[in-house]
Structures are given as structure tokens and as C-alpha cells.
């Protein structure tokens, strides 16, 4: 068959295969996510049952979590901080029957929910997450805005909910920033050693595809945009302007995991742009630290009480295949 002579049919086939592939990936990632929550719930169960029945529990006392964090870190690496172990303990404490844990919510959702002491308020936000398909950012935003308390105190709850829906439809910074970006069009094979400069150059060479990956409304301003403070010079990797939000968008590229120092540096860039680069009509700039990996708990602590316009996102150099997804599931199962 001449592929070119039946381009319409062939294009339809490519589109159909692509949609099926993306749908399969989404389902596979959901399985990974569900497995992770279940794994952490079971770890929490082990901790609580040891506290209640362990023969040598008195030896550890209040230092059990601290001791576990040290020993498990030595054996498994990251993922077993005292904070994370406390959350694992809490998810079992608050949800002692696993069937009450929703498969529609990820671990990051539960970390936010477990920080709520009031069980009625926690249940309210949990149900809203499921009903409205809230992202982590939307859950954090509604918690910060005290949606539960506002609704509880409102005489006209229906009118207030309509007002909240209108707020959600407004275009906000979090609407243009995703948790993860796929940069497979850069054609950087993995495993491969590359520098941040090389990563930046590949993005510039494939700027059109990168703009499509970023989404609607982005306009390229420049690369290695110089910031001068006194006699010191700093350079923002990529600068864009968002024509809908009417603000600069600064992107700093990191080929490894994002660190707290990267967040501090981006916060400085945002301050400089707002005070020195913004002109009349410009809104506060948005900063994105785009890294190969990130630790959500570290990011949570590092961004505490600083600009809400600062985001940390991950990038992938390729789409994960079935084997990689399976290995992630198996790795999580091995923790049980």
C-alpha cells in the first residue's frame, strides 16, 4: 500500500494509536500511584501494630519514627524521612480500613489531607478532590482559602459554591504550569551524560516544540537573560512572556534533582523581575524550576511562606514504556 496515497486513513491510524498509547500510559501510572498509596498504608499499619503489640516497643518509645527513618534510609535511600514515616503512620491511623482509602487520589493528595486534624474537614476536602478532580495545587489553594470554614459559615451555600466555580474558571498561574513535561523531541537518549547548557541549546533548537509543550499563550523573550545586582551577574536560562496572564515566565533548567538552593535563587529572580523588569500592566512574574527530579517534601518545606508564583516541575526525556512502568510497580511492592 502506498502510504502517501492514503494519507488521511494513515493519519487517522497514527492518531488512533497515539490516543490508545496515551490512555494506556495514564492507566498504568494510576496503577503505580494506587500501589504507592497502598504500600505506604501497609507500612503505617506495621508501625502502629508494633507500637501496640511490639515486644521491644518500650526500648524505642517516642524515638521509634526517628530510629526507623535512619535505618530505612540506610537500606532503601530516600522516601523514609521522619516526616514521610509520620504520614504513613497517620494514613493507617485515620483510615484503619484500607477500603476507605480512595484509589482516585495520589499520595501527594493524602499528605495534604493528613495535615488536617478535624476529621469532618478532612472528609470534606477528600470528597471535593474526588468529585471535582482537584489537582494538588487546587487542593492546596482551597485549603489556604479556608473553603471548608467559609462554606460552613455561609448562609447561602449554593451561591458561594457557584462563586467558587467562577473563581476556578479564572486563568491563574497554576493553570499554565504542569507537574511534569515530556521533552522527548529533544532526542537526548537515556542514559546519557549532558550538561544544562546542552539541554538549553536543544530546547532553543526545538523551540517550536517546546512552546507547544508549555501550552497556550507563551512567547519567547530570551535565553541567558542577565540580571545584575551590584557587581554580580546572574543569568536566567529561559525567559518567556505569557500574553494571557500578562507576566514574565522564568525557567531555570536543572539536569539533576531540584534543591532548596535552586528555589532560593529562583525566588531572587522573581523579586528582581517584579521590581526592575515589570512595566505598567505587567502582573507578578512566574518562576519554574524545571528539573530532572524533585522531592515533594523538600519542595514543600523550601517553598514555605515564599512566592506562590514559584513552581518546581519535572521533565522526562522520553515517555516511559511498559517495562519501566512495571519495574516501578515491582519496586514499590518490594517495600511491603
TrEMBL record:
| Cross-referenced InterPro entries | PD-DEXK-like_domain, tRNA_endonuc-like_dom_sf, YhcG_C, YhcG_N
Q: Which Pfam families match?
A: DUF1016_N (PF17761), YhcG_C (PF06250)
Q: Where is the YhcG N-terminal domain?
A: 17-150
Keyword annotations of the record: Endonuclease, Hydrolase, Nuclease
Q: Does the keyword Glycoprotein apply?
A: no
Q: Where does the YhcG PDDEXK nuclease domain lie?
A: 175-326
GO molecular function (one): nucleic acid binding
> So which domain of life are we looking at?
Bacteria
- Per its record, how is this protein called by name? Predicted nuclease of restriction endonuclease-like (RecB) superfamily, DUF1016 family
The root-end lineage is:
Bacteria, Pseudomonadati, Bacteroidota, Sphingobacteriia, Sphingobacteriales
Amino acid at each position: 500500500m502506498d502510504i502517501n496515497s492514503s494519507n488521511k486513513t494513515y493519519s487517522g491510524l497514527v492518531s488512533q494509536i497515539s490516543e490508545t498509547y496515551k490512555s494506556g500510559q495514564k492507566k498504568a501510572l494510576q496503577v503505580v500511584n494506587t500501589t504507592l498509596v497502598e504500600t505506604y498504608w501497609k507500612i503505617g499499619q506495621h508501625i502502629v501494630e508494633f507500637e501496640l503489640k511490639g515486644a521491644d516497643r518500650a526500648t524505642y518509645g517516642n524515638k521509634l519514627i526517628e530510629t526507623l527513618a535512619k535505618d530505612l534510609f540506610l537500606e532503601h535511600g530516600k522516601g523514609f524521612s521522619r516526616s514521610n514515616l509520620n504520614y504513613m503512620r497517620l494514613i493507617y491511623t485515620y483510615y484503619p480500613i484500607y477500603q476507605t482509602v480512595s484509589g482516585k487520589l495520589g499520595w501527594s493528595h493524602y499528605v495534604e489531607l493528613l495535615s488536617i486534624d478535624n476529621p469532618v474537614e478532612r472528609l470534606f476536602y477528600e470528597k471535593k478532590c474526588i468529585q471535582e478532580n482537584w489537582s494538588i495545587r487546587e487542593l492546596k489553594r482551597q485549603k489556604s482559602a479556608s473553603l471548608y470554614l467559609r462554606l460552613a459559615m455561609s448562609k447561602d451555600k449554593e451561591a458561594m459554591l457557584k462563586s467558587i466555580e467562577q473563581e476556578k474558571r479564572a486563568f491563574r498561574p497554576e493553570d499554565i504550569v504542569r507537574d511534569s513535561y515530556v521533552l522527548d523531541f529533544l532526542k537526548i537518549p537515556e542514559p546519557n551524560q549532558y550538561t544544562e547548557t546542552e539541554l538549553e541549546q536543544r530546547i532553543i533548537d526545538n523551540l517550536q516544540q517546546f512552546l507547544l509543550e508549555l501550552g497556550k499563550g507563551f512567547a519567547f523573550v530570551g535565553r541567558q537573560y542577565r540580571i545584575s545586582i551590584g557587581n554580580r551577574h546572574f543569568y536566567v536560562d529561559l525567559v518567556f512572556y505569557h500574553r494571557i496572564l500578562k507576566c514574565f515566565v522564568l525557567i531555570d533548567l536543572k539536569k539533576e534533582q531540584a534543591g532548596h538552593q535552586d528555589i532560593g535563587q529562583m525566588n531572587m529572580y522573581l523579586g528582581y523581575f517584579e521590581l526592575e523588569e515589570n512595566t505598567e500592566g505587567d502582573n507578578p512574574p512566574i518562576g519554574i524550576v524545571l528539573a530532572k527530579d524533585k522531592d515533594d517534601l523538600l519542595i514543600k518545606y523550601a517553598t514555605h511562606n515564599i512566592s506562590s508564583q514559584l513552581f518546581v516541575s519535572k521533565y522526562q526525556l522520553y515517555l516511559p514504556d511498559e517495562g519501566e512502568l512495571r519495574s516501578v510497580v515491582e519496586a514499590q511492592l518490594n517495600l511491603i
